[in-house]
From TrEMBL:
CDD domains, A to Z: ACD_sHsps-like
Residue ranges of every copy of the SHSP domain listed in the record: 40-150
Name recorded for this polypeptide: SHSP domain-containing protein
Family to which this protein belongs: Belongs to the small heat shock protein (HSP20) family.
Pfam families attached to this UniProt entry: HSP20
Record's keyword annotation contains Cell division: no
InterPro entries per UniProt: A-crystallin/Hsp20_dom (IPR002068), HSP20-like_chaperone (IPR008978), Small_HSP (IPR031107)
Xref: SUPFAM superfamilies: HSP20-like chaperones
Superkingdom of origin: Eukaryota
Keywords (A to Z) from UniProt: Stress response
Amino acid sequence: MSLINWGNNNTLDNIERRMTNMMENFWDSARHGRLSECAFDTGGINPAVEITENDKAFNVHAELPGVHKEDIHVNVNDNSLTFSGESKHSTQTSTDNVRYSERRYGSFSRTIPVPDNVDKDHIEANFKDGVLDLSMPKTKSSTSKRITVN
């Protein structure tokens, strides 16, 4: 059985569609304040990240499917936290009969700004089921306190 491309094979249409998608991604990122995250599709890995905050900590959740814990590195400096790693080809997968693949392999790196009120000495990293969870506890002096207005 051979695969048949039923789509339009016009090269100019494909280029126009890719440019349109790239610009839409750019403007969408700019509208939502994520311009630094704007990644034009270079074929590399750009892990999806969610950052939440509660009274005690900032929490980062990064999706890293297919990545092994041993291949993840987390570094923190004065004002940023960087996690990086590599998704490697499986040794069990044969490429002889692959007809189509959207899987990506290679190195990745994401840098997240760290607020001044984070206790950098107590940042914790856990990895389970393809999700990297980073907990960045706030310093004691940074917790909010309700003040009564007299």
